[in-house]
Amino acid sequence: MSATILVVDDERDLVATMEHALQREGFRTVAASTGQEALQMAGREPVPDLVLLDLMLPDLSGTEVCRTLRSRDATRNIPVVMVTARDEEIDRVVGFEVGADDYIAKPFSVRELVLRVRAILRRARTPETPEHSTSIELGPVRIDVLGHRVWIEDEEVVLTALEFKLLHTLVTRRGRVQTREMLLHDVWGHHAGIPTRTVDTHVQRLRKKLGVACDCVETLRGVGYRYRLLDD
Questions:
Q1: Edge-to-edge strands, sheet with 4-8
Q2: Tens of pLDDT along 39-59?
Q3: Has this prediction a pTM greater than 0.85?
Q4: How far apart are CA 31 and CA 20, in angstroms?
Q5: Strands (DSSP E) found in 2-130
Q6: Considering the chain, what is the average pLDDT of its residues?
Q7: In the chain, what are the domains?
Q8: CA distance 24 to 18
Q9: Of all helices (H) and strands (E), which one includes residue 150?
Q10: Contact 9, 37 (CB under 8 A)
Q11: pLDDT for residue 15
């Protein structure tokens, strides 16, 4: 069955262009012109496989829509791609912090849009490999991989989708140094347009949420990051 893409934008001509390009590649599309309409449509069964989300909507901001999607059980794992004319670094950072999976700046080529959509859907559908358990426990950190939930010493902490990906990547590669470029590739999915200091920002926020386990994420100056147990 072809994937369903929810296109959220109040520019009708752009929506028509994106829908045409996606449908030509075999995707099903539905569209919403406001944030509230997008949240209603995303919550219907079957939920969309991916959301293309404009930041500037007439009622809610795209960041608020993304934050709400991530807070609901039914929609928390839907990939979200921000599509917006606001291309300042702070806009990209805020988008990633609320859980966006990718960021495409207007104007863009429809070919790039389709390639990004295919890449994100491919990552989202990749099954768990045997070496990656669905439940991971290392020291004070316990991760439910399929449920996207994390506990620190039996107290659950709420992570954004990107924070979860970042922690999971570091934990499953325990003891191995991960450069910022590697993390951008494996967590964000690509390098283009994302400064390496975005990784540092997310690591700092992740450490704050990890509390007593914050020192498990070790900084190697000039190199990158590594997950280790305190007694390693």
A1: 28-32, 4-8, 50-53, 80-84, 102-105
A2: 999 988 889 999 999 989 999
A3: no
A4: 12
A5: 4-8, 28-32, 50-53, 80-84, 102-105
A6: 85
A7: 4-125 (3.40.50.2300), 135-227 (1.10.10.10)
A8: 10
A9: strand 149-152
A10: no
A11: 95
